[in-house]
Amino acid sequence: MKIPANYTRFNGGFLKIWVTSAEEEIPGQNKSVESWQIVDFRDTEMDIQINFTDPMAISQSLKKDVLSIRYLSNGYFARESDNEVIKYKQS
């Protein structure tokens, strides 16, 4: 994958990151993604630092919560070999 020069400035307009609860949420728990930042970007991997509103609420039951990422600005995520971009709103 081509590495965008400005990847550290990516925000919610580039990626949407959210948590889907595996079970019915307990009142008072907040499993929201508070903020995130791409800290490293390599040919085949991206490291994302994610801060949760209530980190202790994430995956506390036998069923684990699901973290999802959707690419919104797909033009920044392209293969090195042929410049083909990831599909718009790919998850």
Topology overview:
Blueprint: E1 15-20, E2 33-41, E3 46-52, E4 66-71
Antiparallel strand pairs: 1-4, 2-3
Question: Could you characterize the architecture of this molecule?
Answer:
There is one protein chain. The chain contains no helices and 4 strands. The chain is an all-beta fold. It has one domain. It has a two-stranded antiparallel sheet with strand order 1-4.
Radius of gyration: 15 Å
Strand content: 25-35%
Total strand count, please?
Answer: 4
Number of helices: 0
User: Biggest sheet, strands in spatial order?
Assistant: 1-4
Category from helices, strands and their pairing:
mainly beta
Total separate domains: 1
Short key terms for the protein model shown above:
91 residues; two-stranded antiparallel sheet; 0% helix; mainly beta
Quick summary:
Helices cover 0% and strands 31% of the residues.
